[in-house]
Specification:
By secondary structure, the chain is mainly β. The chain contains two helices and eight strands; from the N terminus they run αβαβββββββ. The protein has helices at about 1-20, 40-45; strands at about 25-35, 50-60, 65-80, 90-105, 110-130, 135-150, 155-165, 185-195. An eight-stranded antiparallel barrel has the order 1-2-3-4-5-6-7-8. The relative contact order is 0.22.
Length: about 200
């Protein structure tokens, strides 16, 4: 929860400073797609997940810009005892991410490509549905993004992105020791250029 508040405050501060500068254009995007975890333990329990995300891309002259957004991952899984047996425990996992990126933009009004790097401020919760157990934590991890927009009207574009997050859970995590809760996500949706 603390990481989410810090991330949101930092994102608002950066956007406020950026708005004071001369911006070339502002684009917002909304997308949904799939998440493929990089950690084998996470994949065994949850498999692939579904992500929805929205981002604001503020570009300046010289092709550089800042981006901030919001993403939500939801997934259901099944835990089984390591020792074997027929017991199983249904689980649900949710992760909220506030990314803050610096990006480089190239292309034309018809097709725009953005390469971004920065940090993701992540809050996550795992709930065991048949027993009274719940684990939650907040982490900050690196994020890399490749985003492409292709114009279909004057301000409206088709939008696609590929993102990689690394989110080490740490030694005391509920899923296990040092599980990486990150991975790759591929999203598709729409982008709208405000100015």
């Amino acid at each position: 929860m603390r990481a989410r508040r810090v991330g949101a405050a930092l994102a608002l501060a950066v956007l406020g400073l950026a708005a004071a500068a001369t911006a070339q254009h502002l684009t917002v995007s909304l997308a949904a797609g799939g998440f493929s975890p990089s950690d084998a333990t996470y994949r065994q329990i949850y498999g692939n997940g579904m992500v929805i995300a929205g981002d604001a891309w503020l570009a300046f002259e010289k092709h550089f810009g800042l981006a901030v957004g919001f993403g939500r991952l939801s997934d259901d899984g099944l835990a089984v005892p390591v020792s074997g047996g027929e017991a199983s425990f249904p689980l649900s996992f949710t992760r909220t991410t506030v990314p803050l990126l610096v990006f480089y933009e190239l292309g034309s009004k018809a097709v725009t490509v953005r390469l971004g790097a920065g940090a993701g401020f992540h809050s996550y919760r795992e709930s065991w549905q048949t027993v009274d157990l719940e684990f939650s934590d907040s982490k900050v991890g690196p994020r890399l993004v490749l985003a492409v927009s292709a114009a279909i009207f004057a301000r409206l574009s088709l939008y696609a992105s590929a993102t990689y997050d690394s989110i080490p859970s740490g030694a005391g995590a509920a899923l296990g020791t040092n599980i990486d809760l990150g991975g790759f996500q591929v999203l598709g949706g729409l982008a709208y250029r405000i100015f």
